[in-house]
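Quick one - inputs below.
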Amino acid sequence: MKRRSWPLLGILAFGYAFLYVPILLLILYSFNESRLVTVWSGFSFKWYGELMHNHQLLDAAWLSVRVAATNASVAIVLGTLAANALVRHGRFRGRSGFELLLTAPLVMPDVIIGLSLLLLFVAMQHTIGWPDGRGFTTITIAHITFSTAYVAVVVRSRLAQMDRSLEEAAMDLGARPLGVYTRITLPLIAPALFSGWLLAFTLSLDDLVIASFVSGPGSTTLPMVVYSSVRMGVSPQINALATLIVAVVTLAVLIAGISLRRDSKR
Amino acid sequence: MSQPPHTHGPHTSRLSRLVNIGIPYLWLGLFFLLPFVIVLQISVAEPALAQPPYTQLWEWVEDGLLQIQINLQNFMLIWEDEIYLAAFLNSLWVAFVCTLICLLLGYPMAYAIATAPERRRTPLLMLIILPFWTSFLIRVYAWIGILNTNGLLNHFLLWLGVIDEPLQILHTQTAVYIGVVYSYLPFMILPLYANLTRLDPTLLEAAADLGCRPLRAFLRVTLPLSMAGIIAGSMLVFIPVVGEFVIPDLLGSPGSLMVGKLLWTEFFSNKDWPLASALAIVLLGTLVVPFVLMQRLQQNMDENQT
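Output:
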């Protein structure tokens, strides 16, 4: 007795249009020769060319990618450990505090995380002399802190849904717990690890506010460069950059989606 | 969920506990919890022309005496100066309005996706998540070109003949609403969707069999049962939006007051670290109630699941 409800479909269509029209316009205008958004003066790759020669932006992008990759690789480990604790260790002492620490970074306003971490780094430098100045290390630590919470959410749900009979079979055959974990559990949750890593990577690549607080002179991330040029007004180079980011992300999400789907079919 | 009793020896189990619980606990305690203690400490310091730019809270004076100075001026200032109170009220208002709009738009969308044929659900959901993965900053920036006085929206409306002269939308509160709803809509839809797909369809069938009309069945069965999703989604939007910086900064009017922006200005422009810290503490205090509400709900749901 399923009937299609037209008002509902109308809202759904409006919602998708609302989410996608701005992005599509950005992509369209990245190929516009004119600097003005309102004038279409012809198709051109001019802004992409300028982008490739913008050294300040490219350096920042390189720093951001290095931070994002390091962040994602550490966060995936910490987040998976946290997910193990929550799914496999039942009601341990301090569990509610543990959950609190893992949920709070998801909603905590960026300005608070940024400011508090900066003050920590300054205080640490003052008392123990580390970290010496701010840059790659401090930005990466800050990103790992909030990425871990996101990774834990992704890995936790996968771990909770997992069928444990394979693990039990291996145990019965005499495998050691660590061996079972690395050779059975990890491969089974691999898709979640992959999407967790990707999520941590993109979250880091996207962060402006926290990085602005904890970065030092000479360590400017990509969002910081984008922000300062956006504050000057609309810039077609940023449109071109946006198009490249959208293309890469779409590709990554498609690959992740297909691999997840294939995995669930198996 | 039953744990097979023979799987973990007591020794490995203790080690695994230590690693799985201890390491993340240590990291988050050091880099998430400890910083708040320091923020609290600096919020009661005084700004100083020094490096770092605040006075030390305690110092050892002669004879091994510890002298502690607490300065509550920053909190007094936030309480007395109308700017700060107005900024807090405005931030809460913006977050409230945007949460409501997200709910009104997100609920029907989540419902439509959850009731779509099963093979269409995953792609429809992917389309909700996809924008979330592309740069947040760039998506906010896209609205500058659209909402500008000689931007695309005004040209379109002029061309349609709806308006005679361009509307000033960019750098107004309306632009902030649009930007926030646009950026946070997926956070509303995802928990709602997760909740609605778990809903038992036989309940609605039972209601229909007993002669309940669809709208009434929705109001009396679906809506109450999806309350957990509504609260979770609302908190995921409300809490971060209260402290939002990027959207009011890029789309709002220069004079528009939001706490996140004020904190940023005090820190970066005025270099008043203690006042910025005091603002962070007050903001944190404001968000405790909705956060605890969310946390309780989350734990209840987890317990029901297992």
